[in-house]
Amino acid sequence: MSDATFRLRRMFNPASGRCLDIAVDHGFFGEKTFLRGIEDLPAAVDTLAQARPDAIQLTIGQARLLQSQGGRERPALVLRTDVANVYGAPLPDHMYDLTLPNVALAGVQLDAACVVVNLFDLPGRPQVREACLRAILNAKVDCEKYGMPLMVEPLVMKESAAGGYEVNGDLDRIIPVVRQAVELGADVIKADPTDDPADYHEVIQTASGIPVLVRGGGKVDDDELFRRTQAVLEQGAAGIVYGRNIIQHDNPAGMTRALMAMLHDGADAARASEILAAS
Questions:
Q1: How, if at all, do strands 150-159 and 212-215 pair?
Q2: Is the pLDDT of residue 1 over 50?
Q3: Cβ neighbours around 123 below 10 Å, total
Q4: Which DSSP string do the residues of 93-119 spell out, in sequence order?
Q5: Cis before residue 90, ω within 30 degrees of 0?
Q6: How far apart are the first and last CA of the chain?
């Protein structure tokens, strides 16, 4: 068992073996629409931390908002280490994905449980994929040096009618990128949802024993989110990484508690709805 594995245990519930990671790193990408619900980030982080998810995903500039509060009971820090400009509409002529130097050292200095790097698959943009591959290769060397777990986030995109990108839930596109992330040495995978959640066991199989956390994607209504969550958990997902579906909710703390009940207490979608309504 490596040092990275020791640190990674801080993210996963010891009884269920699952993790709820709430992504609050959206300001890193320079898009105004991403800031809804986190305009007051200190207050947002306080609300989420008090609801006790397993982890909160933040950037190097804002990790202090989590790490400066509470004690050992606070959620684990997942540190976002790369910034990209691929989320705008219309799409920019020049796209990039830039990564912090010495990502694992930054994680150690901030007492993170894990660092996360993107692996973009964008139509017609091989240079962005190449930049991600270089970043992951460099991050893996740094992570091995410091015993820092590496989360890789394979993101398969397609062009949307609005002029930007949206999640491509095509199983045949997701599987090879997830497998590439595993082959590159990921300790955790943060993967796209598939169009049909019943297919998700194939993504889990492709990950070859590496835990897979499922991204939330775009914002959906509560019932759909709970149904989707139940489906991917039944398919073998080790947890979820949700952002806008929690931070833009009218009741972020209640949504956090409902999802935690699904992950760790075996609550189904109907029970999660009841927990949210009672919160």
A1: unpaired
A2: no
A3: 11
A4: SS--EEE-SSHHHHHHHTT-SEEEEEE
A5: yes
A6: 40
> How many C-beta atoms lie closer than 10 Å to residue 6's C-beta?
11
Closest CA to 171 of 197, 194, 205, 204: 194
The tokens for 143 are 């992570």
Q: Which two tokens stand for residue 132?
A: 């991600």
Sign of CA dihedral 259, 74, 8, 120: positive
Neighbours of 220 (CB within 10 A): 14
Q: What separation in angstroms does the CA of 196 have from each of 148, 192, 207, 227, 270?
A: 33, 12, 18, 12, 20
User: What is the per-residue pLDDT across 166-205, written as a single tens digit (0 to 9) for each?
Assistant: 889 999 999 999 999 999 999 999 999 999 999 999 999 9
Q: What is the pLDDT of residues 256-276, one digit of tens each?
A: 999 999 999 999 999 999 999
Q: What is the pLDDT of residue 187?
A: 97
Nearest residue to 197 via CA among 163, 226, 231, 223: 231
Q: Is the dihedral of CA 228, 183, 158, 247 positive or negative?
A: positive
**How far does CA 7 lie from the centroid of its chain?**
17
How high is the mean pLDDT of the chain?
A: 94
100 close to 61: Cβ distance less than 8 angstroms: no
> Is the Cβ–Cβ distance between 243 and 253 less than 8 Å?
no
Q: What is the pTM of this model?
A: 0.95
d(CA 40, CA 30): 16
One-letter amino acid for residue 219 of the chain: K
CA distance 179 to 186: 10
Q: What is the pLDDT of residue 256?
A: 98
Q: Which residues pair with 63 in a beta bridge?
A: none
Q: Which CATH code for domain 3-250?
A: 3.20.20.70
CB 53 within 8 A of CB 21: yes
